[in-house]
Predict the 3D structure of the following.
Amino acid sequence: MVGSESYAPLYFRDSSGQAAGVLVDLWELWSEKTGEPVEFVNLPWSEGLDTVASRNDAVIAGFMHTAEREKRYDYSIPFYRISTHAFFHKSIEGVDDPALLSGFKVGLVASHYAETFLAKNSPGAAVVTYPRFSDLIQA
């Protein structure tokens, strides 16, 4: 199972550097029930996507479905749904719709679904990408 290095609470590294989170728990339970071993690999998001695309034994969970991605990947039925949000300084008011991000610099993780979503719903946003969530938060 390939996971992003920091996608808490779904997938992240714990204090000892081991894979942890909701998706790790699910895959460990699957492994226990099926007897099939699961190896967890922590990679930056875009590297994880490339790994899944190039190996027939790799799985990534927490992956948003798009028509473009469907050309490269197969999907299971959804087993977990999440919502996502834009976070901004509390002095900025009135941004309650993605279209209103136009004109703002918006940080995203490279190859994340949010890039596709913002290109469609807020093409005027100035998107800046980072390899990992931790890099994005630091910026």
Q: What stands out?
A: Residues 50 and 72 are 10 Å apart (CA to CA). The chain has a mean pLDDT of 84. The beta strands are 2-4, 6-7, 11-13, 19-20, 41-43, 105-109, 126-130.
